[in-house]
Amino acid sequence: MIRGVRGATTVNMNDETLIVRETEKLYLAMISENELKADNVASVLISVTDDIDAAFPAKAQRNIEGWKYVPVMCMKEIAVPESLQLCIRIMMHVNTDKGQQEIHHVYLNNAVSLRPDLSVSK
């Protein structure tokens, strides 16, 4: 079964170092909370709000041991008025035997406001 594992974080400014660092923290939390192995991840989609363009957040994945060959794609989030700004969202498609209720979605920084009903916040 393929399941989606969601995560989101924010940065406080459009800066390459911050974007990569906060995305890596999010990746590591999602991996840890869901006991993920790169070989079980089919693909990763990353979206950013319009105010993030200093770096590709996918660059963070290259910093994680064993994740070099996991397909990843970055894209822009829909620009909805009054939505959370400076936000990076990740959707991992994971091969797992876990049920939907066993998946731990991770929201960090200001992104905890997005789905407090589903999140594991760090």
TrEMBL record:
EC number: 5.4.99.5
Name of a matching Pfam family: CM_1
InterPro entries in alphabetical order: Chorismate_mutase_AroH, RutC-like_sf
Catalytic activity: chorismate = prephenate
Source superkingdom: Bacteria
Keyword terms: Amino-acid biosynthesis, Aromatic amino acid biosynthesis, Isomerase
Any GO BP: chorismate metabolic process
Binding, prephenate: 6, 89, 107
GO MF entries: chorismate mutase activity
Descriptive protein name: chorismate mutase
Lineage of source species: Bacteria, Bacillati, Bacillota, Bacilli, Bacillales
